[in-house]
């Protein structure tokens, strides 16, 4: 069965499913018919796409036969205002692309971007575990020259330190020194004092020198008393 005949059969199935759905009264039956209808619609859309590609190849044998492959969007930056977190995605010539092929799905803790068949590729981006929740209904996209601007509406006006929770955890881990439970506590204290001494100003150095001298004198007097 060729693509044309397959398409006709699927279209006939869809018409019959729609007719049955109109007559169905029980919710369970309606749900089953809706699920089947969605499957047929997806299959029909795929067959139509294959048919279009087939026609293109017949008109232009040099036209590519493969469907666009998907690449991850890695070139982006982000900024924020009081009400929005803004993500800037750099995509060449996206402003010339049909807007319906630029799809952004917002959820409270994440968002995803799919730009279909741009320059022969699908461009995809998934940002999970946003640092704070957003309002999906008030979030939207803007298409600019060589750029897609994703506008995530904040649920609260608090400032974001990072875009995601993972980035924040990574940042905090870098800032927080690792603690070795097996290390000598006195060695850790000495290292800390050395760090403070090295980075401190003259006043800090004088204070540490004085404290160190007094500490050594106290230890010496204690040792002299033990010898008595």
From TrEMBL:
Composition bias type Basic and acidic residues, residue spans: 215-228
Annotated ranges, domain CS: 71-164
Sequence ranges assigned to domain SGS in this UniProt record: 149-228
Coiled coil: 7-57
Protein role: May be involved in calcium-dependent ubiquitination and subsequent proteasomal degradation of target proteins. Probably serves as a molecular bridge in ubiquitin E3 complexes. Participates in the ubiquitin-mediated degradation of beta-catenin (CTNNB1).
Organism, scientific name: Tetraodon nigroviridis (Spotted green pufferfish)
Compartment list: Cytoplasm; Nucleus
Protein's name according to its UniProt entry: Calcyclin-binding protein
Domain of life where this protein originates: Eukaryota
Region (Disordered): 209-228
GO CC aspect terms: cytoplasm; nucleus
Keyword Methyltransferase listed: no
Keyword Cytoplasm among record annotations: yes
InterPro entries with a match to the protein in the record: CacyBP_N, Calcyclin-binding_UBL-bridge, CS_CacyBP, CS_dom, HSP20-like_chaperone, SGS_dom, Siah-Interact_N
Molecular function GO labels: S100 protein binding; tubulin binding; ubiquitin protein ligase binding
